């Protein structure tokens, strides 16, 4: 099953010697973007997954993974920056070579994540969220002063994995809002802006 969800990755390039004076670049199974991007163009490929933790403050980032792109808390794309994330088959140049995988900690797997696209938005917004385990969730949209605008999901049992909620925002005025995801144990808040 292919999953796409959004936070940064360590740029890892593995090279193996195939003989005297010859090096061959291999595509790693996992990449982790763990430092901020402050300009230029970065392109990451992984045969299995990419995990992103930090911010794209300026510049352009391309992420291509075979199974999953995970955006963890702390990931942010600043206005004017470009992010292109794509799930497609990525082959290692040498399938006989066994690559050491960079393991994601159990703590990272246990994090609930929420993001929105586009942000800022005009007429509708898509809320994507990742649940590390089955859980009962509620999602609401509130003003920055705490007034509830819309209940998007109310006390609904949902399974582990990536979920999406689309919200038609034509009836609300322009401004800043908070998207609040609640579980019995956690509360996540993300700022979203309507143009």
Biggest beta-sheet profile: 4 strands, parallel
The low-confidence parts are: 1-24, 94-110
List how many beta strands DSSP finds. Answer: 17
The count of domains is 2
Q: How do the strands of the widest beta sheet line up side by side?
A: 1-8-6-4
The secondary-structure element order is: EEEEEEEEEEHEEEEEEE
Percent helix among the residues? under 10%
- Can you tell me the overall shape? globular
Instruction: Indicate the radius of gyration in whole angstroms.
Output: 19 Å
Q: Give the rounded overall mean pLDDT.
A: 74
Number of helical elements: 1
First-to-last CA distance: 35 Å
**Assembly type:** single chain
Estimate the strand proportion.
Answer: over 45%
Class inferred from helices and paired strands? mainly beta
Structure description:
The chain has one helix at about 105-110, and strands spanning about 5, 15-20, 20-25, 30-35, 35-45, 50, 55-65, 70, 75, 80-85, 115, 125-130, 135-145, 150-160, 160-170, 175-180, 185-195. The strands form five sheets. A four-stranded parallel sheet has the order 1-8-6-4, with no helix packed on it. Strands 5, 7, 9 and 10 form a four-stranded parallel sheet that branches. The chain is built from one helix and 17 strands. By secondary structure, the protein is an all-beta fold. Helix content is about 0%, strand content about 55%. The longest helix is centred in the middle third of the chain and has 4 residues, at about 105-110. β16 (about 175-180) and β17 form a beta hairpin.
Short description:
This protein is mainly β and 195 residues long. 2% of the residues lie in helices and 57% in strands.
């Amino acid at each position: 099953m292919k999953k796409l969800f959004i936070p940064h990755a360590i740029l890892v390039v593995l090279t193996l010697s195939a003989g005297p004076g010859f090096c061959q670049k291999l595509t790693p199974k996992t990449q982790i973007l763990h430092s901020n991007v402050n300009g230029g163009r970065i392109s990451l490929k992984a045969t299995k997954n990419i995990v992103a933790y930090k911010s794209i403050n300026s510049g352009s980032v391309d992420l291509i993974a075979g199974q999953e792109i995970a955006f963890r808390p702390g990931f942010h794309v600043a206005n004017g920056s470009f992010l292109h994330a794509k799930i497609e088959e990525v082959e290692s140049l040498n399938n006989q070579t066994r690559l050491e995988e960079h393991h994601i900690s159990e703590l990272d797997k246990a994090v609930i994540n929420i993001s929105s696209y586009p942000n800022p938005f005009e007429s509708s917004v898509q809320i994507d969220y990742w649940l590390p385990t089955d859980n009962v969730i509620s999602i609401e949209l509130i003003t920055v002063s705490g007034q509830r605008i819309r209940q998007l999901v109310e006390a609904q049992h949902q399974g582990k994995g990536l979920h999406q909620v689309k919200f038609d925002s034509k009836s609300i005025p322009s401004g800043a809002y908070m998207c609040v995801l609640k579980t019995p144990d956690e509360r996540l808040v993300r700022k979203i802006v309507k143009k």
